[in-house]
TrEMBL record:
GO MF assignments: L-isoleucine-2-oxoglutarate transaminase activity; L-leucine-2-oxoglutarate transaminase activity; L-valine-2-oxoglutarate transaminase activity
Taxonomic lineage from the root: Bacteria, Pseudomonadati, Pseudomonadota, Alphaproteobacteria, Rhodobacterales
Cofactor: pyridoxal 5'-phosphate
Pathway: Amino-acid biosynthesis; L-isoleucine biosynthesis; L-isoleucine from 2-oxobutanoate: step 4/4; Amino-acid biosynthesis; L-valine biosynthesis; L-valine from pyruvate: step 4/4; Amino-acid biosynthesis; L-leucine biosynthesis; L-leucine from 3-methyl-2-oxobutanoate: step 4/4
Protein name per its UniProtKB record: Probable branched-chain-amino-acid aminotransferase
Entries under SUPFAM superfamilies matching the protein: D-aminoacid aminotransferase-like PLP-dependent enzymes (SSF56752)
UniProt organism field: Octadecabacter arcticus 238
Gene responsible for this protein: dat
This enzyme's EC code(s): 2.6.1.42
Similarity comment text for this entry: Belongs to the class-IV pyridoxal-phosphate-dependent aminotransferase family.
GO cellular component: a single term: cytosol
Reactions that this protein is recorded to catalyse: L-valine + 2-oxoglutarate = 3-methyl-2-oxobutanoate + L-glutamate; L-leucine + 2-oxoglutarate = 4-methyl-2-oxopentanoate + L-glutamate; L-isoleucine + 2-oxoglutarate = (S)-3-methyl-2-oxopentanoate + L-glutamate
Amino acid sequence: RTVYLNGDYLPEEDAKISIFDRSFLMADGVYEVTSVLGGKLIDFAGHSKRLERSLSELEMQKPDAFDDLLEIHRELVRLNDIDEGMIYLQVSRGSAGDRDFTYPSADVKPTLVLFTQSKPNLADNPVAKIGIKVISIEDQRWGRRDIKTVQLLYPSMGKMMAKAAGCDDAWMVEDGAVTEGTSNNAYIVKGNTIITRHLGTEILHGITRAAVLRFALEAQMKVEERPFTIQEAQDADEAFITSASTFVMPVVEIDGAAIGTGNPGPVAARLREIYLEESRNAAL
Ligand code: PMP
């Protein structure tokens, strides 16, 4: 696999960064995951805008190559012959060559890394036909979840707790309300209404979320952006998640309780279809 590191396209085994890099020592880095369908990038503009915001919220420099990111993504897709899959991008604050809590001076350049992951059947994912099962766990992450940092230990622990319970993912709960999934936004459906938590510092502002809510409104569905409880979710007609790598994925069970019929519902299926079609049409 060919990867990108600070201006160079390299075989993955030759791409090396310093042990003092702040993403390694302090999780001082931000990232984006963009999916690829038919060799083209989905929602590239949204991911690039959110990256810019994450960098700015952390007072991290933009990499010199920021304006070339579309070209770099495309070049990696070409070099690795990706038809369906993902591109991972990470920017870290770099390092002045020692361990120090204070940020390095402005002449220290950020580290920019990109790599591809081929995933045949990303769009035609068989899991979308059966749905996933989730457990609920307490949300123990830090308070700035709107910044997409590489601090993913708690989400990782959540996934492990889900696996140990025979489930696929965990929905995190804070002050009695669902925030989001470990790596996705969470939704429930009641009748013609889609309910998902409002934006704020408590959740990541999903790029897929923004698109799906727009398509839902265009399809004459109602959208309520507000907190909801696990109880309300268990009593809902349907539930689903969204993310760049799962698109729209039905949730059929929460903490052992079947949602609706216990099978993927029509609203999630329709939104998945619309999202895939619209995104392919707009792909870069
Ligand atoms: N919430 C969290 C915590 C995430 O990690 C992700 C995916 N990175 C999302 C939501 C979904 O965001 P997006 O639709 O931009 O992939």
